[in-house]
């Protein structure tokens, strides 16, 4: 009788532990979804501002075309091509704003201070959003590698989380911002 009670208690404790682990994994997957939505919002914001700048007429024609096309491609990219398109937008931003002259031209235009501040904020927020997303992915992957999660299929049918890898280095003229803007 005592052995049966001990076995029932042990099975109950194992069940509670597995349930807690499954709940933790579910929370991590929810965190990944929230971080992915935040990353998508920041990428869309950055592409929208870049596209707006490309059509504003403030930049020289070549820079406008390069920036507009990269921003358009980033906004229209399929999920499989998104990392590449976003990296190309980062490269286009670095190419256009390689020198302070382009950034200064945007600042001098009507509404340019506000547009520059929005672009600087967007360029700074993309790496943070990507870092939050990739940290959540890393935590979920680490938990999903445990034998207990695989053996008891605690992840259910959730797809294996993938990190979002892209070039998000900011342009030199926008990374520093203006003195006093930090």
UniProtKB/TrEMBL annotation:
Coiled-coil annotated residue ranges, if any: 68-95
Keywords noted in UniProt: Coiled coil
Protein name, as recorded: LemA family protein
């Amino acid at each position: 009788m005592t052995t049966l009670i001990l076995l029932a208690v042990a099975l109950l404790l194992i069940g509670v532990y597995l349930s807690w682990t499954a709940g933790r994994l579910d929370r991590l997957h929810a965190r990944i979804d929230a971080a992915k939505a935040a990353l998508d919002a920041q990428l869309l914001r950055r592409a929208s501002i870049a596209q707006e700048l490309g059509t504003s007429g403030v930049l020289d024609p070549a820079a406008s075309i390069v920036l507009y096309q990269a921003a358009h491609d980033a906004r229209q990219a399929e999920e499989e091509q998104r990392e590449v398109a976003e990296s190309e937008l980062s490269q286009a931003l670095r190419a256009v704003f390689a020198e302070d002259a382009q950034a200064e031209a945007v600042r001098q235009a009507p509404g340019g201070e506000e547009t520059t501040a929005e672009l600087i904020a967007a360029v700074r927020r993309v790496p943070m959003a990507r870092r939050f997303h990739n940290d959540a992915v890393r935590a979920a992957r680490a938990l999903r590698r445990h034998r207990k999660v695989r053996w008891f299929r605690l992840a259910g049918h959730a797809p294996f989380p993938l990190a979002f890898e892209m070039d998000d280095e900011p342009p030199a003229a926008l990374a520093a911002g203006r003195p006093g803007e930090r």
